[in-house]
Structures are given as structure tokens and as C-alpha cells.
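Lecture 7 notes. Example A: sequence first, then its C-alpha cells.
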Amino acid sequence: MRLILKLLSLTLALLAIASLPARSHAAELSLTSSTQYLWYQDILADKKENDVAQYLRVNVTKLDKEGKANIYAYGRASQQVTSDEDLKGRLYYLYFSYQDALNNHLDLRVGRTYVHSAAVSGTIDGGFLEVKNLGPLGITGFGGREVLFQDKAEVGGGNAMSGASVYLDAPKTTHVEVSYGNKYRSSDLARENVGLDYTTTPVEMFNTYGRVKYDTIGDKFNELLFGIKLAPLKDLLLKGEFVETRPTFDNNSIYAFFAVDRYREINGSLEYAITSAYKFNLKYAKEYFGEDADANVYDIGLWARPIPDLTFNGSYEKRNGFAGQLSGFRFDAGYDIAKAKIQAGIDYDDFTRDDSRAGTAKKYWAGAGYQFNKLIGLTARVEWDVNYRDSDAWQGFGAVNVNY
């Protein structure tokens, strides 16, 4: 009973925060709630656990007559039934947004919000602003306390993140962004990056994109990405990418002093819609891990809808080289019956690692959902895992979902 009261208190608190402005204006309220019961195998504790969790998303929009002012909130509270742990919570975001201020030249977000740039990204307790419509140019800036999540709760303190970027939106659906960002740990500079992000479609059937991130503290590139997309036919899409990444640690972390290898990947893929009911995809990747370790990865998949309410989705992946000889397939199917949705699937992996183990892993799962009306629905899923670690592991969840 005490757990239910705690979850109810959090729900009412979020509702109260989001609803305060609505009393002074005919605002619109949108609420999504999911009350869940979960059971699973805790690998670290090597025991079965049972949780009760409450997810809540609240949107209060059109706080002013022009519809420029809005409030958005999303959070979760959870409690382990099988232990004496305290109630844990995560507030993913809660911010006030004001758009198109100063004659459509300024967007503003204040509160807990997720920010993204080519240099750094993350969730902050602070502010984000965008100065836009300066011809093809725009400017963004953000700063505040960096929010760190661990397991089921929020951790850390004394963290800060800030950054700024300048972007260009040019014809031919071209977007180019140059940005700078940093992160602080206990008032010490922990990370500092500059970044470049671009995408352009010079002709309708061809697109190229890329991202470059440079670590100014380590004086090294920690991310390079260049890709192309080509659509020579209406139902055919070809992709090619080059990816290079390097593990990045805080400047004051002991791991920053260790030598690390870069990871490189060259991949190509094909997606083809045979008809509107059958789609085929094929992918190959060459992976490089450093010290002459590499691997070849092949993937083939098919999506099918033979009749209106029945869908199939299957894929097969084979890997050879570094980490061993691995292969496996995934298959799932779904069927809609009026207000009900039924889904089931199988994952099967065959692995042979030269330096550790050999065997197979199997996962069987099934899920169902029923929507009573526009307001209330039920969902459930159960999963059975058989692998080298567990011979009979069950997990799943049941949820009551409310959309208002």
C-alpha cells in the first residue's frame, strides 16, 4: 500500500506542476500513463526480481493564445517488490518551451531538457536557445547541470555541460553545423570537443552525410562518419558508410591514460521493396578492431505482409573473424484482431568463441495488447531465455496504459 501511495504521489505532483499554467489560460492537456509490473533475472545479483513501475508523460500546450508557450514532462518511478530498496525515480525531462519569439527569430527551452549538437549531447538542468531565420544561418547555445542516470535512478553532482553551434540551411536540402561543447566534473574541465555535422541532397536520388568530432584535450579525432544514400529506382535504396570511433574518457579519469584502439567499419546495404507487402534488405560490414583483428558481418532480412492484418519479419546474420564464428536468426510475427494485437518471435544464436565458449542461445517471446477504448489499454509480454548462463530464465511485464 505504501508503494502505491508513493507512486500516486509522484503522479499527482507531475500533474500539478504541469497543470498550474492551465488555470490561467484555456490550455490543452495531454497525458500518457503506463503502470507496469515487471519480473526478470538480475544478472549481477544472480536472483529473480520483481518491480512495479509508473511512467508518466504530461504535455500542456497552447498556454498562450498564439500557441507558442508549452510545458513538457516525462518521468518514471519504480520499486523493487522483492527487496527493501527505496523508491527510485527518474525525471527524464520537465521544461518550459517558448517558440517563435522576437518575430519568429527565437526558440527557448528552460528546465530539464535533452540537448544535441555535433560536439556534445546530453540532458541538462538549464537552458537551450536557438536564434533562427537569420537568412540561411542559425545559432544555438545551451548550458546547465549535466544530468546522469544510472540503473533506475539519477546519480552524480557537480557536473556541468555547455556548448554552442552555428548552422547553415542552404538550398538542395543542405544542412551544415559547426559546434563546440564541454563537460565539467567538480569544476574541472573533463571533456572538450569541436564537431561538424552535414547532410546534403544535391539531386533527388542522391544524399551524402557526415559527422566529425574532435577531442581537443586528447588532441585526437574520436568520431568520423561519412555516408551516402542512392536511390536509382523508386523502390531501391543503396547505402554506404565509413565509421571510425575511439573510446573517450573524462580527462580526470584513470582510463584516459590507457592506450586504446580505434574501431573502424566500412559497410554497405541494400533495401528493396519488391511490392508494398514484401521488402528485402541486405547488408555487409567489414570491421577493424586494431592489432590485426577484424571481422566480416553479413545480414539478410525480409519483411512481409501476406494479408492485411498479418506481418512477418525475419533476419539472418553471420559473423566470422574477431570474437569467433557467430550466426543466428530472428523471426517475429504480428496479427491484429479488431482492438487486439498479438505478436510472437524467436531469436536463435549459434556462437563459437576461440578463447571462451561455444554453444547456442535461444529466446522465445510472445506479447499481446488490447485497447478497450481511446483512454485505456493493456499490454503484456513474456520471454523465455536459454543460453550458456541460464538454462531456464523467464522475464516479462504487464502494463495498464492510459492516454488522455
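Example B, a different protein, same format:
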Amino acid sequence: MSEPTNLWKSRAEALEKARRRLRAGHPEGLHDLRVALRRTSSTAAALGQRRLAQQSKDLVRSLSATRQLEVDRELLSRVAGLGLLSPQSAARLEARWEGLARKLGRRAGRVASSPDFERLARAVARRRLAGTDRDLARLERARRKVEAALALPAPDSGDRALHRYRLRVKRARYLAEDLAASGAPGFSRAVDREKALQEALGRWNDVRMFRERLAQMRREAESQGAVSLASELARVAGALEATEAAARQSAVRLVGGPAQRFPRRASHTA
């Protein structure tokens, strides 16, 4: 068994590093901060720190709109580059989204400096010396529980079910990485598979959410009498329908693949 990592210390360091990157205006700062918060929530929930888990989850949610707009602007750039939108319409949307991005960016900065974030960071930092021999057993129990959900048949009943499955895959991956960092062997294959599945589901979800934003923008354009823009947005959304379907199909094929079950080994003694 490899030398275990202090998970709480890692979480505290990741939170602080991500916050610094966000404040410095790093392109991945917001993404890094949300990942650090999600990992903190996953670790805290597994180790029985429900309050910390909920605090982290609430902060993630407060940053979701900002992150989604980042993704949508990147996809808008790709769509414009493919010629699916006229330069005038692309520029019009980008100008509007730029203003919204500035507003949401200021909000993200306030979240990273908020009393709620400060309290969370201090609480996580205090936990760095609180690890016990029972932590590995708790992580194992949490991993077994989420594996039960991953072992279900492919969630092909609808987009909402697939989205919920995506979140479970993300949690399963984080737990596998926590276990590996804590010295538990045999999780590398699980991490690799769940990372690939998470990325495939993420690509599908990004296109899905982008098409929903385009639909919203089309409705707004119609209400404002911008017939030409509304027509273009409807055409782009239609063109992306096949892309979304292909991304969904690719992800579902991975979901239906052989599950990576909990590694068999000698039981851990608490």
C-alpha cells in the first residue's frame, strides 16, 4: 500500500489554489474552483461531514450559471467558425453574452471572497489533522453505495435521468481517487473508466445546455421582432440536434459497458 495522502490537507490546498487562480483571472480559474468545491463536498459527505458537504455544494451551485456561460461562449465561437451563424448574428450574441459574463464574473469573485467561502476554507483547513483510521472504511462504504447506482441498467429513459447518472459517475470517480490517494490499491482502472465516461457525458450535456440557451435566445428574438436572428438561431439549434444525439449515443454506449466493480482484496481493519 502506498503512502496515504491527507485528504483534508489536499482539499484545503486545492481550494486556496483555485481561488488564487480565479482572482488572477486565469481562464480555468472558475472551473478549478468548482472542481475543488465538488471534491470537497464529495470527501466531506463520505467522511460524515454533512455540513461541510452542503456548504460546498451550495457554493458550487452559486457558480453554475457563470461556468455554463463560459461553456456556451466557447461553443458559440465554434458555431460561428463553422459558418452556422452569420458574422452579424454571432457578434450580436457575443456582445450580449460579454456583458452578462462581466456581471457573472463579478459575482463569482464575490463568492470566492464571501464569508461563506472563508468559513468553508477555514473549516476544511482545521480538518487537516483530523484524519482517523476509520476514514478509509468510510470511503469504502461510500464507494460501494455509489457503485450500486452505477450498476443499474443504462439510464436511457430521458435526459434528466442521464444527467443524474452523470453526477453519480462524477461522485464515483472522486471517491475512487480519494481511496487511491488514501492508500487503497486497485482503483486505477475505475478512475480511468469513470473519467472517460464523465467526459463523454459532459460533452453531451454541454451541447444540450447550449441548444437550450439558443432556444431561449430565439424566443427572446421573436418577442422583440428580430425575425432574422430568430430564424438563424432556430437553424443552428436544428443543425446541432444531430451533434447532441451523437454525443448522447456515444455516452450511453459507455454507460452500458462492463461496470468497474469494487476491487476485491482483504478487508480493511478499522
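Note on Example B: The chain has two domains: 1-131, 132-261. Residues 132-261 form one domain.
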